Every structure is written in C-alpha cells, then in structure tokens.
UniProtKB/TrEMBL annotation, chain A:
<dbReference type="InterPro" id="IPR014006">
    <property type="entry name" value="Succ_Dhase_FrdA_Gneg"/>
</dbReference>
<keyword id="KW-0809">Transit peptide</keyword>
<feature type="domain" description="FAD-dependent oxidoreductase 2 FAD-binding">
    <location>
        <begin position="62"/>
        <end position="456"/>
    </location>
</feature>
<dbReference type="InterPro" id="IPR037099">
    <property type="entry name" value="Fum_R/Succ_DH_flav-like_C_sf"/>
</dbReference>
<feature type="binding site">
    <location>
        <begin position="455"/>
        <end position="456"/>
    </location>
    <ligand>
        <name>FAD</name>
    </ligand>
</feature>
<keyword id="KW-0249">Electron transport</keyword>
<dbReference type="InterPro" id="IPR011281">
    <property type="entry name" value="Succ_DH_flav_su_fwd"/>
</dbReference>
<feature type="binding site">
    <location>
        <position position="295"/>
    </location>
    <ligand>
        <name>substrate</name>
    </ligand>
</feature>
<dbReference type="InterPro" id="IPR027477">
    <property type="entry name" value="Succ_DH/fumarate_Rdtase_cat_sf"/>
</dbReference>
<dbReference type="Pfam" id="PF02910">
    <property type="entry name" value="Succ_DH_flav_C"/>
</dbReference>
<feature type="binding site">
    <location>
        <begin position="90"/>
        <end position="105"/>
    </location>
    <ligand>
        <name>FAD</name>
    </ligand>
</feature>
<dbReference type="GO" id="GO:0006121">
    <property type="term" value="P:mitochondrial electron transport, succinate to ubiquinone"/>
</dbReference>
<dbReference type="InterPro" id="IPR003953">
    <property type="entry name" value="FAD-dep_OxRdtase_2_FAD-bd"/>
</dbReference>
<keyword id="KW-0999">Mitochondrion inner membrane</keyword>
<dbReference type="InterPro" id="IPR003952">
    <property type="entry name" value="FRD_SDH_FAD_BS"/>
</dbReference>
<keyword id="KW-0816">Tricarboxylic acid cycle</keyword>
<comment type="pathway">
    <text>Carbohydrate metabolism; tricarboxylic acid cycle; fumarate from succinate (eukaryal route): step 1/1.</text>
</comment>
Length: 663, 100
C-alpha cells in the first residue's frame, strides 16, 4: 500500500512537471562553471587567477606550435619525434590550412633531369630576392632542399616520376644553371597538380604517428611574455568559450600570411596575420612587411588569379572606355609586358577614373575576340573557371580583373635557425623561447621578391629547422620557469571588451574600409603622395577600432568575436605595411615606387665599383625594415637592420655580391 | 481500486496534453510538406539505392587523364593532367594561375 502510494506520488510529480518544461535553447545567462577537462594528458588545471568570468585552463608542455599549416605541422611532429611533449594550437583543422591551396611545385636541386648543384639554386634565390635576402638563411634552405624533398617522399608524398622512377622535375620559377649562365634549370618537383594539398595531408598523416596534442579550433590570442622571454600562448577555445593558457619553454609561430588586409587577395578568409600581430603586441618587431607580392590579373571578388597565358594567347586588358590601355604604357610589349608594369598600368587607369563596374575599381580582361576553339585547346578549363569564379561566359563577356595580393614576403624576423630575433645596439639578439617558420616568418629567404615554388620549400626546411634548434638546446621534460599568475589578463580583458562592444561601426564595415584603403594606396602603384594619404587614412581607420560594434554576446562559437579579433590583427599588419612602404624610398623587388624608380644600394652596381664611394648605412636601402606598433595608439616606429651578406660557409659556398637584377 | 482511479485520473491529465502536442506537430508537418508536395512529384532521395537507379552520366572532365597516367611527350608518371602547366612561365591550371 505504501509503495503504491509512493508510485502514485511519483506519477503525479511527472504529470505536474510537464507544463514547467522549458526548451533548452531558452536557458541563457548563468552557466555552471565546473569545467571538466578531458583528454589523454590529465595534467591541465582550471584556475581563476586572471578571470572569474571566464573558465581558464592552464596546460604545461615542452613546446607549443601555433598554426598547423605546412610549417606548423612539420615543426610539431619534428618536436614530437625528438621526444618533446608538444601541443599544436590551431584555429583551423590542419588539413584546412591555406597550404592546401599551394598547388605549384617545390624546388630542389636533386639533379634528376640534368646535372644540378644546390649552389646554383642558392644563386638564383639570392638574385630573385633582389639582394635583400639573408644569404646564410638562403644557403641553409637550398643546401637542405634535396634532403627535405627526399624526406617528404619517404613520408609518402606521391611526387610525379620520370621513366627511371626518379622524381620528375620541370622548369619553373626563374631557375638557372651555372650561376645564371647555363640556361634553364629543371628543379621543380610536383605531385600532379596538387602539391600543397598532398604535402599537407602527408605531413598531417605523419604527425599522427607521434604524440602531439592537437588543440583544433583554438584561436591564439597572445604570447605570454615575461622579462623579454616567451613563456607560452594564451588561446580561446572557440567551441566552448574557455580560455587556455599553454605554458611551454618553446613557442613556435607558424600562422601564415595576412593577405586579407587587402581587398583583393588569393588567400583564404583565415589569412589574417595572427602571428605577426601577437609578436607586435608583445613589443617585438616585424620585418619587411612592405614587400607584398602582387599578380596583375586576379578575378574581382573571388581573388583567383588568371594566368598570364591568357594575355599570351591574345587576351587584352580594356578599361571603361573600351580602350586597350596597355598600348599607351608599353607600346612594344603591350599586354605582354612584365607583371609589375601591367599591374601598375591597371592601377593607374583605375586611379584616373577609367575603371569599370559600379565602384569603378577594376578593369576587364577580354578574351571573346579569340576563336572559342583556340581558347578551348590552348587554355582548357578557362571557360569553367570564368563561369565559376566570375560568373561570365568567357566567349561572350570580359572577365573583371584587378591586381591581387598573393604572398607576403615579410613577417617575424628570425635567424637561419628559426629563432626570433630583435635588433638592439647594432646586433641581432635572440628572443629566448620564441621561434617562427613558414610565411609568418621572415628568415629572410625571399627578400624583396619570392621565386615560384620556393615557398613550399621554405615551409618544410624551416619547420624542421625550428624543431632541430629546440632539440639542440633543450631536453624534454625540463621544468618550466615560473610565470606570473595573472599572465594573459590583458588578452582576456580585450576579449571581454570586444564581446560586449557597442560602438557604431560593424566589424565588416571597418574591415572593408581597411581593405579598400590598402588596395587603393598600398597596392602596386606606390608613390609618395599616395602612400602618405594612405598612411593618414589608415591611422584614422585604426582609431575607428575603438568604435567597433559586435552583435553576438554569447561565448560558444562566437564567430563575430573571432572575426573582430582577426580584424585587430589585420589592422596591426596593415598599418605596419603602409608605413614601411611610405618610408622606403627606392624600388626593390615587389616594392616598386614611381617617384624612386631605382634600387638604392651602398654602391651603384650598374657601374664598375672602382672609384665609387660607399654610401653610409643610413643613406642606402639595402637593409631590412623592422616595424613596431604601439597597439593603443596605432603609432608605427621603424628601425632598420642590415642584410646578412655572408653565407654559412664561405669555403663551401661563397656569398653572391650584389649586382643588377635583370633576367 | 483506489490505484485504478488514480491511474485513470493521471491518464486524463496526460492524454489531452499529449494529443494537443501531437496534433500541433503533425499539423505543421502536413502543411509544410503539403505545399512542397503539391508543386513537384516525389523524387527519390539520394541514398545509395536511389543513386544507382539513375543513369550514370560520366562527367566530362576538361583535363583528360593520360593513358596509364604517363604523359606521352615528357614521359612523366603521375604528373599534372592536360597541357604542361608551366608553358606560359607561371603554373597554370584550367586558366587559373596557381603560382608565379
């Protein structure tokens, strides 16, 4: 009887509870902050040292790698292989990093097609960098190149082969034999037409053999610096909004470039220069940010590049008046002029108001005057590309194009071992505990201009170099130096401020303003007045960041917040780029100015050196730019650092003295 | 006996609420799919079974694969399909410039 009554009471409770049931989605506000940590290494602790509003988890590792593209993955598993307890913090899943879009090949002097020597590759790269590259880093990269490619091939990367079974190499990227005197060199190895994709998947697959802890979709906010030493990273877990502090003796930054600072770029939406910004906020310099590689014909809006072969087959560029404007700028070569001439001509046309489209900010590439069968046989697939990315039928309408950013040569300054350096009192000084590799770093192998197929090589060689340097200097399992308990609280405060920002301008508006300004003022066409105007405008736009408005107040997968953080990072990169460009009064490599058309070196290398007086350091421009920003005011300070002219071993490989760069 | 009466009363509480809930849900479902159903005939879902029933159309790829994956001119095995990507000085594929 008693049990029956109990049962009935239970039943009645169930009935009464129904009307009160509220759908889970409506529950907001207070969360249960008991944060349980899962995973195989259970030594992470929850702390409330820096914030009581956000759950903060502390992790301890031997090394942390920020970014999981080609360079980041290579560094991460290189460290794991050496026995270090490594964490890889990445805001994207590793196989979604932008390395996957690098479909060109990878250069290495393997000598499979004809006799080859890495010293000739060294010469080509030094010349390509317009003598702004550090020759010791270039020596390191080109000497390690054959070993790196063979290592990748041993990891399982399916390079294309010759009949003998050796790796097939083709001619690409300004490579020559015998220091430029022996004709075209065949050095570019590839995997069908998807080298970057294959590289990334190979590296990711290889890294799973080792014990790296992956923290995927964790947005790295800042470096934890103390006394000029880097002690780790603080990151936001996007999935649940918790803050994680990764304490480690060594931090490797491999976050990629910042193409998204410009309106038209080939980079993914996630290329926002987070690593460069983290380093800037830590008070360290960024190097050579003014060197940005452009391509003249990128599809408007989509950012994909149209091959120069279109112009080679007879395509022409026309402005709003239907005029073939290249005839005015390059009467002999016309549309087949070199890339920088074409880019500058297009920009001048747009600036003078003869652009097309509602904003008059691009020009047309016309192919419909060519016979369609010729297009289909010579350029198969172009009608597909034009339809997908531009929405035009290439046999009837022209393709909208404008100069597009493709690669950032500049980044975080490192030495040839991958250690981040600063320049104080005329000497390079290593920042303990901090390393950088990949597009985010500036080692500097590309100098003022990157050669094709060298960037994938850069990734793997310097990713491995960072791992080797760390393995040389430290042992796994070393005790970490103490860190202030409230380290990282400014990052959390900034996060909180952005999350509840209630100004008047949306993130997307500020970002579009920045991108348009950079595209109009700091793109291909650079001259003093345009750059100065751009600097002032960018300073103004930097101040509007105070006025930012976000809409999503939640903490779980708040993409509005993450995009605003990315915008802050982009803004830091953009102001440094434009100020560095404005100050550099010469034309070198990718930085071409109309008012200073020549290269200004310590000697005039177009004439014999005898009888010439060496210009003092502060009067010539063969030096690296180091830029600092004060994040609160947006003020940029510039310093300079000399180019390293000696190679690692003068007996083995003599350095190349500067000369005029002509192909 | 008392138990039975209690059960009956609880059942009365339960039933109306559930019926109401059910009718609301099914009613919505009916109107939503009803409109769609009136416009187009029922199409088989793209389940593996449904896909095998469709006639297979071989999508014509612009860049044809080489026989045995060996390029006849250069004898390259496993290389890029179609014409040589570096013939214009940059790395071209399907009209797009990938690297330069």
């Amino acid at each position: 009887m008693a049990s029956v009554r109990a049962a009935s009471r239970l039943l009645s409770k169930k009935v009464l509870s129904h009307p009160k049931a509220v759908p889970v989605a409506a529950v907001q506000g207070s969360r249960n902050f008991h944060f349980s940590i899962y995973g195989k290494k259970n030594n992470a602790k929850v702390s409330d040292d820096i914030s009581t509003q956000y759950p903060v988890v502390d992790h301890e590792f031997d090394a942390v790698v920020v970014g999981a593209g080609g360079a980041g993955l290579r560094a991460a598993f290189g460290l794991s292989e050496a026995g270090f307890n490594t964490a890889c913090v990445t805001k994207l899943f590793p196989t979604r990093s932008h390395t996957v879009a690098a479909q060109g090949g990878i250069n290495a002097a393997l000598g499979n097609m004809e006799g080859d020597d890495w010293r000739w590759h060294f010469y080509d790269t030094v010349k390509g960098s317009d003598w702004l590259g550090d020759q010791d880093a270039i020596h390191y990269m080109t000497e390690q190149a054959p070993a790196a490619v063979v290592e990748l091939e041993n990891f399982g990367m399916p390079f294309s082969r010759t009949e003998d079974g050796k790796i097939y190499q083709r001619a690409f990227g300004g490579q020559s034999l015998k220091y430029g005197k022996g004709g075209q060199a065949h050095r570019c190895c590839c995997v069908a037409d998807r080298t970057g994709h294959s590289l990334l998947h190979t590296l990711y697959g290889r890294s799973l053999r080792y014990d790296t802890s992956y923290f995927v979709e964790y947005f790295a906010l800042d470096l934890l610096m103390e006394d000029g030493e880097c002690k780790g990273v603080i990151a936001l877990c996007m999935e649940d909004g918790s803050i994680h502090r990764f304490r480690a003796k060594n931090t490797v930054i491999a976050t990629g470039g910042y193409g998204r600072a410009y309106f038209s770029c080939t980079s993914a939406h996630t290329s926002t220069g987070d690593g460069n910004a983290m380093v800037t906020r830590a008070g360290l310099p960024c190097q050579d940010l003014e060197f940005v590689q452009f391509h003249p014909t990128g599809i408007y809006g989509a950012g994909c590049l149209i091959t120069e072969g279109c112009r080679g087959e007879g395509g022409i560029l026309i402005n709003s008046e239907g005029e073939r404007f290249m005839e005015r700028y390059a009467p002999n070569a016309k549309d087949l002029a070199s890339r920088d001439v074409v880019s500058r001509s297009m920009t001048i046309e747009i600036r003078e108001g003869r652009g097309v489209g509602p904003d008059k900010d691009h020009v047309y590439l016309q192919l419909h005057h060519l016979p369609p069968q010729q297009l289909a046989t010579r350029l198969p697939g172009i009608s597909e590309t034009a339809m997908i990315f531009a929405g035009v039928d290439v046999t009837k309408e022209p393709i909208p194009v404008l100069p597009t950013v493709h690669y950032n040569m500049g980044g975080i300054p490192t030495n040839y071992k991958g250690q981040v350096i600063t320049h104080t009192n005329g000497d390079d000084k290593v920042v303990p505990g901090l390393y950088a590799c990949g597009e985010a770093a500036c080692a500097s192998v590309h100098g003022a201009n990157r050669l094709g197929a060298n960037s994938l090589l850069d990734l793997v060689v310097f990713g491995r170099a960072c791992a080797l340097t760390i393995a040389e200097q430290d042992k796994p399992g070393e005790k970490l130096s103490p860190l202030k308990p409230n380290a990282g609280e400014e990052s959390v405060a900034n996060l909180d401020k952005l999350r509840f920002a209630n100004g008047s301008m949306r993130t997307s508006e500020i970002r579009l303003n920045m991108q348009k300004t950079m595209q109009n003022h700091a793109a291909v066409f650079r001259t003093g007045s345009v750059l100065k105007e751009g600097c002032d405008k960018m300073d103004g736009i930097y101040q509007t960041l105070e006025n930012i408005k976000t809409f999503d107040r939640g903490i779980v997968w708040n993409t509005d917040l993450v995009e605003s953080l990315e915008l802050q990072n982009l803004m830091l990169n953009a102001v440094q780029t434009i100020h560095s460009a404005e100050q550099r009064k010469e034309s070198r490599g990718a930085h071409a100015r109309e008012d200073f058309k020549d290269r200004v070196d310590e000697y005039d290398y177009s004439k014999p050196l005898q009888g010439q007086e060496k210009k003092p350091y502060d009067q010539h421009w063969r030096k690296h730019t180091l830029s600092y920003v004060d994040p609160k005011t947006g003020k940029v300070t510039l310093e300079y650092r000399p180019v390293i002219d000696h190679s690692l071993d003068e007996q083995d490989c003599a350095h190349i003295p500067p000369a005029i760069r002509s192909y | 006996m008392s138990l039975l009466r209690l059960c009956a009363s609880t059942a009365k509480h339960f039933a109306p609420k559930r019926l109401l809930g059910d009718s609301l849900f099914t009613g919505c479902a009916r109107t939503a799919s009803g409109a769609a159903k009136d416009q187009e005939p029922l199409r088989k879902a793209k389940t593996p079974q449904g896909r095998f029933d469709m006639t297979e159309e071989k999508s014509k790829d612009v860049l044809e694969k080489f026989p045995d994956d060996v390029n006849p001119e250069t004898k390259e095995k496993g290389g890029p399909r179609g014409p040589e990507p570096t013939r214009y000085g940059d790395w071209e594929r399907k009209g797009r410039c990938i690297d330069f």
